[in-house]
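Handout for the seminar on molecular recognition.
Each group receives one record of this type.
Step one: identify the two inputs.
Step two: read the structure output and locate the region that could contact UD2.
Step three: write two sentences on what you found, then compare them with the reference statements printed after the record.
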Amino acid sequence: MNRYVVTGGAGFIGSALVRVLLARGHRVHVIDNLSTGNLDNLEEVADEITVHEIDIRDYDRLAPVIAGAARVFHLAAIPSVPKSIQHPVPSHDANINGTFNVLRAAVEGKAGRVIYAGSSSAYGETEKLPKSEGMAVEPKSPYAVQKLLGEYYATAFSECYGLETVSLRFFNVFGPRQDPSSPYSGVLSIFLKCLLERRRPTIFGDGEQSRDFTYVEDVVDLMLKASEAPGISGKRFNAGNGNRYTLNETWALLQRLEGVDLPAIYAPRRPGDVSHSQADTTAAVRELGHKPRFTLEEGLRLTLQWYRAHMNEEEPEEAGVKLVS
Ligand code: UD2
């Protein structure tokens, strides 16, 4: 039984995970409604995977795919703090009800461990940095509440139904294939697009807010470790790099890497925005053997390289990935 399911597998994090699972010899089924994910992300591995175009809100279609899976990586979600404020209903429905459906399908279908993608937004503003898993949580936005609730459900399902679950609190993940095209896109993908197009980015607030930007390969590595480590069911771990950089520092670094001078435009701070974010990686290092390998600069160089190579690519006529349902 080595069928692995990745919900949100057509997204930039999910597709990076799919590649590594395939390299390890697993059979991979992707569940994605292609709302923010894109089949182009899976193009090179199209012949090796099965893709189900299913919305996680649709329990009846979801359940048979999850039934009997050895591992379920649950990454499907409607991300973004501001999107959850402007469109709270779909965001609530996908992130809370969708997560409930995945967990329920895993219990009813006797699936193996579920690895849930939580969010560092759960912490909100904390007095201390870095943020550790034992700290009180104070979610500031609908998105933060929704992601935290998913963790609570994961833990409760472990406790009440014996389902193995592990939650990972992702800290601002970035890397190749992250879609920069929406105003809700991750800030680094937007910064990199601006850089390559020689445009000035907009920074919301004074730019002194800081983030623990985490390279996608480090998060994939941690997900694999969380899927294998014994005796951790019901627990949650930070999935971060352990550093933090302000937006001003990060934009300055990018300009330096590219040798350009493009001063940012400043706009009012966004509601629900957390001021500072930095992961305490102690528990993940101790219990999961977490070893972040990429510094911010290394990750940015690799991501910049990828965007440079792919930004002006023509849309392929056919993605080449076959959908089964
Ligand atoms: C939150 C979570 C993150 C992940 C993500 C998913 C925190 C600390 N982090 O990321 O772990 O779950 O949600 O969506 O809560 N910004 C600009 N200009 C832009 C775009 C963004 O200045 O064009 C600012 C934004 O106001 C914020 C920072 O950049 O201060 C990061 O924004 P983001 O949307 O990339 O991610 P964030 O921190 O909300």
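Reference statements: The chain has one domain: 3-324. The pocket of UD2 is lined by residues 79-81, 119-121, 170-172, 186-187, 190, 201-204, 209, 211, 247, 270, 273-274, 277 (CB under 6 Å).
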